[in-house]
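Honest question from a wet-lab person: if I give you the sequences of every part of a complex, can you actually get the arrangement of the whole thing, not just the pieces? Trying it with mine:
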Amino acid sequence: MGFRFDVVGVGALNLDSIAPVSPAARSLLRGAVDWGAECRVGAATVDAAMRTVHAAAVRNAVGGSAYNTVAALARTGVGLRLGYVGVAGRLPVPGTPVAERLRKAGVDTALLREEPGELSGVCLSLVEDGERTLLVHPGANDRMAAHLEVEFDAVVEYLSAARIVHVTSFLDPRTPAVLADVLAAVRDRSPETVLTFDPGHVWAGTGGAPIAALATTADHVLLNERELRALGTTGDDTWAADRILRAGRPGRVVHVKRPAGVTTFTRSGPLLRARFHPQEALTADRVVDATGAGDVYAAGVLVALAGGGGTHLYDGVRLGMALARHKLLHLADAGHADFPGVVQAWRDFTTGPTSGRSPTDR
Ligand SMILES: Nc1ncnc2c1ncn2[C@@H]1O[C@H](COP(=O)(O)OP(=O)(O)OP(=O)(O)O)[C@@H](O)[C@H]1O
Ligand SMILES: [Mg+2]
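Yes, you can. This is the full assembly:
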């Protein structure tokens, strides 16, 4: 079947900001936040806080897990046809609106709902003496469930036209169930569409039937160690991965990301196969910005999956790790311009005579 899109991302959109706590911010937020903790705040609070710290921010980047992945894919130079489904609000800082950024990057936004009158999601990290206070405002993302309900058939059709649908979290209580229904309908309509799922800390920890349904429908579940434990309920890696892979269609993969490498778990009948893909971990002093590194890993895996049958899963893991390592060395997306080179080096390695991979790896 011919697909209209290679990858469509589905996930919350945020402004991710990191700034030192200024005296003005401290007095503004006195009594309104729990210092050192993660706090959900309203639009007025986050807007005012952003205005106070904006000039001193060390990082101001549009983010959200799926957005990071799609934005990284757009920078690989591979020429993938991309789309995004989500809700974009007004950014609390000057700059190009999210929808326009996506379109400029060549990402289709036909089913991105735009809410210019409403504040976008914001994740503001206020740092002082190594202590960070996280102000989280879901903003326009909270309209996602309604967006999916109103546009249900259109979204199902849109996602069914994608070779890969990459799903990440929303923080409101309603979206998981509606999204699980949407993806079940996509699976019925287009069984060839590959579903990849990066639940992140919040969804992995929340649990519940809709999130379990999303994890079971997914062909690839991307997790770090903490998320694996949360989603797999208890026990060691193997036990947790086995639980996730027990249901769902054949060929499903759990990826467990660590600084030292990635372990892939697959299942063949009663047999669980674990394979560790090592890499040289960067020392802490070399890591410039870790936010979004996992999302860049996902982009590498997706490049390989979008390449069709000729590219092996393990090659995708290797590209994911290479891109993530590169991202860690740069603030926000400052290193993304080098992605085409990283992809080329990966291609040379995987297709070249020195690939060193034994035929049994295929
Ligand atoms: N020190 C390191 N050296 C090399 N690679 C690392 C190091 N630390 C992490 N990584 C890689 O970076 C990625 C981090 O993924 P992880 O899912 O843990 O990120 P995260 O904390 O969820 O961040 P985000 O969701 O913002 O992307 C993984 O691919 C991991 O292998
Ligand atoms: Mg993550």
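Two things worth pointing out. Residues 358-362 have pLDDT under 50 and may be disordered. The longest strand covers residues 82-90.
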